[in-house]
Amino acid sequence: MLIFLINNFDTVKLIELKQVTKMKSELFNYGLNAQQYSINNNENEYNLSTINGFDLNSVCSLRDFSSVLNVSEVCGRQIGVVCKHTETLLLMADAWSKIPYAGMLTASRFDLGAFDQCLSLKLDPDDDGPRVLGKQCTYGLAIPATLTLEDFYLLSYCVPNGCTASDVVKLINIDILPDQLISQLVNDQLCATRETNSVLSGSSIVVAIIFCIFFLLICFSTIYDTLVYYDKLESKAYMQYLATAHLGVDTFFFISGFLLAYQYFKSQATKSVLLQVITLPKMIVHRYLRITPVVLMFFLYSVYLSQHVGSGPLFTAVYNEYNPNCQKYWWSVFLYIQNYYNPNEICWVHLWYLSADFQLFLLSPLIIIPMSQYYRKHFNTVIILLGVFNIICLGAPLISKIYFPDFDPDEFEYDTHSKLSTYFMGVMFGFYLRCHINGTYPFKGVLNSVMWCMTVLIMFAVTTLYHQANINFESKVSRSITKVLIKPLWCLGLIFVTYSCTKGYGGIVNWLLTCRWIQVVSKLTFCVYIVHMPTIFLWIATRRTREHFTDFNLFFYWCGHFFFALIVAAIWSLSFEAPMISIERVLFRPRPSRKANNGTQNGKISIVHHPPHADQ
Question: What span is annotated as the signal peptide, if there is one (predicted)?
Answer without folding.
Answer: none
